[in-house]
């Protein structure tokens, strides 16, 4: 399918998803126009809302990049959720236990989280390349292991805060919040007191994660498009037999691909810990960042650069949709149905091709039998 057609299919899928959401709202007895207005204002109605939307979108943009990268190399990284957890665990450990200067501390903690998650995902790559184990099965198992490993780490007194279900918070030097120290200083408070717009914009946990997400998307796009490594990884994804015939080491590239995808998801977990939560807590279930990243990747057509608007759309819908229940009493689950419908329609481009052919033949006056 041509790029322009893909873009139009995605836009039409978003429209259809919103139509499905509107129908559900009508059936439930709510005015869809009013509901979507609430949602729109919940995203753009205040600088604070815009900041929260960006903060909410950042981790799923990064996990979306991870899934898109793996898909371009012929792998389905369903383990982004577990890699996200591993990245957050080790970023927290590095952020709390290491004693380093500001800026360097945050960078080191992110790299530690990315390295740990890369090694974690490398297990999937080794199992697939050496023993032929499907990456979907091994990734699902590792997702659960990562979740329970998170809880196991919090049994260590050295990491867990007394009388709490959470870890110690990372040191201030490891935090990656935008103007974090300045905001709480006397001069910062005095300045923000007289500047309402900036105060609202910086009040949420705005951090450098969004900038990192943009840089990662550009880096991954460049690697896939303009480097020998990217060419080899894509060649393995397109046709392994042809790639092997061309002298490319298939097994090595599968492991490398999974490690890179895992490291990217690890960065998502690290930025979430260092920029938003500043700690990890006991997990009763998956947080969904990795699974939402798969939806973002699908909406983006597995294009690393397109994961940025797709992630913002996803984050905006979930954040703005969360206000439906509190403001007009409508079920916020409607937004999840709309998002699911968008992904559903994006995943079946053949349907639109079929409708396109029918429309063209009708226009020509041809018989449709």
Task: Characterise this structure.
The structure is a single chain. This protein has helices spanning 3-27, 32-44, 47-72, 80-97, 104-131, 135-153, 180-184, 186-193, 196-202, 209-226, 228-238, 240-245, 250-277, 289-299, 307-321, 323-328, 333-346, 349-364. It is mainly α and 369 residues long. It starts with a helix and ends in a 5-residue tail after the last helix. The relative contact order is 0.20.
Shape: globular
| Strand proportion | under 5%
- Low-confidence spans: pLDDT under 50, at least 5 residues? none
Return the average pLDDT rounded to an integer. Answer: 87
The beta-strand count equals 0
Q: N-to-C terminal Cα separation, in Å? A: 25 Å
Structural class, from helix and strand content?
mainly alpha
With helices defined by DSSP (H or I, 4 residues minimum), what is the helix count? 18
How do the helices and strands line up, and which of them pair or pack?
Blueprint: H1 3-27, H2 32-44, H3 47-72, H4 80-97, H5 104-131, H6 135-153, H7 180-184, H8 186-193, H9 196-202, H10 209-226, H11 228-238, H12 240-245, H13 250-277, H14 289-299, H15 307-321, H16 323-328, H17 333-346, H18 349-364
Helix pairs in contact: 1-2, 1-17, 2-15, 3-9, 3-10, 3-13, 3-14, 3-15, 4-5, 4-6, 4-13, 4-14, 5-6, 5-13, 10-11, 14-15, 14-17, 15-17
């Amino acid at each position: 399918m041509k790029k322009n057609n893909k873009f139009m299919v995605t836009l039409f899928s978003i429209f259809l998803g919103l139509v499905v959401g509107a129908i559900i709202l009508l059936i439930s007895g709510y005015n869809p126009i009013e509901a979507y207005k609430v949602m729109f204002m919940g995203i753009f109605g205040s600088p604070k809302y815009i900041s929260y939307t960006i903060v909410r979108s950042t981790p799923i943009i990064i996990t979306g990049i991870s899934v898109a990268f793996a898909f371009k190399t012929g792998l389905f990284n369903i383990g982004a959720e577990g890699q996200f957890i591993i990245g957050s665990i080790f970023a927290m450990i590095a952020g709390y236990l290491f004693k380093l200067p500001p800026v360097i501390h945050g960078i080191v903690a992110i790299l530690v989280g990315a390295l740990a998650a890369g090694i974690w995902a490398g297990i999937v790559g080794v199992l697939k390349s050496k023993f032929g184990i499907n990456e979907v099965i091994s990734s699902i198992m590792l997702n659960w292991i990562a979740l329970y490993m998170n809880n196991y780490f919090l049994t260590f007194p050295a990491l867990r805060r007394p009388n709490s279900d959470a870890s110690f918070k990372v040191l201030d030097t490891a935090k990656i919040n935008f103007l974090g120290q300045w905001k709480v200083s006397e001069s910062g408070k005095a300045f923000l007191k007289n500047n309402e717009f900036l105060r609202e914009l910086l009040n949420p946990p705005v951090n450098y994660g969004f900038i990192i997400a943009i840089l990662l998307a550009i880096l991954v796009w460049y690697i896939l498009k303009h480097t020998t490594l990217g060419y080899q990884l894509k060649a393995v994804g397109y046709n392994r037999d042809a790639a092997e015939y061309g002298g490319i080491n298939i097994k090595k590239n599968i492991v490398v691909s999974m490690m890179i995808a895992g490291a990217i998801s690890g960065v998502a977990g690290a930025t979430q810990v260092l920029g938003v939560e500043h700690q990890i807590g006991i997990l009763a279930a998956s947080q969904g960042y990795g699974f939402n990243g798969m939806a973002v990747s699908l909406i983006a057509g597995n294009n690393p650069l397109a994961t940025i608007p797709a992630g913002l759309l996803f984050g905006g819908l979930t954040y703005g949709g969360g206000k439906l229940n509190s403001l007009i009493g409508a079920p916020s689950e409607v937004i999840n149905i709309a998002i699911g419908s968008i992904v559903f329609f994006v995943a079946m481009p053949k349907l639109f091709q079929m409708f396109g052919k029918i429309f063209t033949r009708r226009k020509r006056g041809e018989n449709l039998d």
